[in-house]
Amino acid sequence: MTGRETDIARERVERLEGLAREAAADGADDRAREYVRRARRVAERNRLRLPRSFERFTCDACDAYLRPGRNARVRTRDGHVVITCDCGAQSRYPYE
């Protein structure tokens, strides 16, 4: 795979993330979920790592784009943040 193909795939993942964010803000959760699935598939096929913002604002279990206070609960614990999706899945990441 050339660098050009990788750049195109990275741009597409970023664009799909933006579309998912907009769709979730508009209340179109099914459309946002489809954008998240497509972005993951593009990254997987091109062996790309997903951006940190994408990983933290999507649910691994149900592919929802997470909106704190709307379909996700955010809590801080000792040295880490716990995000709970409406489906019940939790993700954790550290903070300082």
Biggest sheet features = 3 strands, antiparallel
Weakly predicted, low-confidence segments: none
Our count of helices gives 3
Helix content: 40-55%
Overall mean pLDDT: 95
Over all CA atoms, what is the radius of gyration? 14 Å
- What is the 3D shape? globular
What is the element string, with H for helices and E for strands? HHHEEE
The tally of domains stands at: 1
Structural class: alpha+beta
Distance between the first and last residues' Cα: 37 Å
- β content, as a range? 15-25%
The count of DSSP E runs of length 2 or more, i.e. the number of strands, is: 3
Strand order of the largest sheet: 1-2-3
How would you explain this protein's 3D organization?
- A hairpin with a 2-residue loop joins strand 1 and strand 2.
- The model has no long low-confidence stretch (mean pLDDT 95).
- Helix 1 (3-26) runs antiparallel to helix 2 (29-45).
- The chain starts with a helix and ends with a strand.
- The protein contains three helices and three strands; from the N terminus they run H-H-H-E-E-E.
- The protein has a three-stranded antiparallel beta sheet with strand order 1-2-3, with no helix packed on it.
- The protein has one domain (3-94).
- The protein has 96 residues and is α+β, with helices and mostly antiparallel strands.
